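Final report, closing paragraph on structural work. Over the funding period we assembled a curated collection of sequence-structure pairs, and we close with a single example.
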Amino acid sequence: MRYNGYNRRPSFIERIRRFMEGRYGRDELGNFILGVCIALVLINLFVEVLVISIIESALLIYLIFRFMSRNIYKRQAENRKFLKIKDKIKSPFVMAKNKWRDRKTHVYKKCPSCKSTLRLPKVKGEHTVKCVRCAHRFDIRIR
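Its predicted structure, as stored:
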């Protein structure tokens, strides 16, 4: 019997690699689901509720289904939706962190036209600002 042109049997890792060819694998949504499962397992260690065990099992089955799926485009679409939702939740916290980091050197102002946030150098006085997004010009006062 010949394997790969040689008289050797493929290694375990090689057989797994061949099995996983064309399958979706891991992504950020999968990592999130895994984190939720681990958190539920830890909670269930102390509380021991049947509903939590059922949710854990369902999430693990869904995680394995996503991992082994051959429908890559659908899994990528699911991941994109998850990332959009994650970014909507995360962006206010990132903005607050940036405002705190730049509080001595920059000010943040909203464009009255398009409502986008502009990061401006902290130079006292009256200034005319042009929005980079909509090209609207407006006056601001920095104290």
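The longest strand covers residues 125-130. The chain is about 55% helix and 15% strand. We thank the funder for supporting this effort.
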